[in-house]
Structure formats: structure tokens, C-alpha cells
Amino acid sequence: MPLKENCSVNVLPPSEDNHLDDGTHIDWNFLSIELGFVFGLGIVILPLMLCKRWRVWYCKHTDGLLSRFFPILILNQRSRTRGTKTQLRNKQR
Fold this sequence. Notes:
Keywords: Membrane, Transmembrane, Transmembrane helix. This protein has 3 helices and no strands. By secondary structure, the protein is mainly alpha-helical. The protein is elongated.
């Protein structure tokens, strides 16, 4: 049984993936990921920037969570504020 096709020539069969990219092709998967990230971040950040009540609530609760996870932050904050009040009292005398 002899082979009917000559395989010595390296010719790729035509397929849809072997087209030349002329630079106008947009990869919609990456574009949708980028747009989703930007809009999702904007949905979280913009209300915090524009609404004072939300910003105050967020900062208050974030500080509470940080103080629970890192109790040393409370000690550092207290020592800093105590030192500045003492320094201000001494300057006024």
C-alpha cells in the first residue's frame, strides 16, 4: 500500500487560527476584564470620595477592624496623641 500524499513539503493546511494579524484585532476577553476592574473599583471608591457619611462610616469601621487584628496600632496611636497633647500643654505654660 503506497502512500497517496507527498508529505515531504511542509505546507500547513488552511485554518481559521493561521490568519495574519494586521493590528486591528481586539481581544474582547482582556478588554472586558479591564473594563470590569475599572468600573468595579469605581463603584467602591467614588461613593467613598463623594459621600461624607459613607466615608466616615468606612473609616470608623476600618479602624475598628484594624485595631482588632493589630492591637499594637492602638498603643502607637494613643502614645502619639498623648505626646502631642502633653507637648501642647507645655508650650502654653
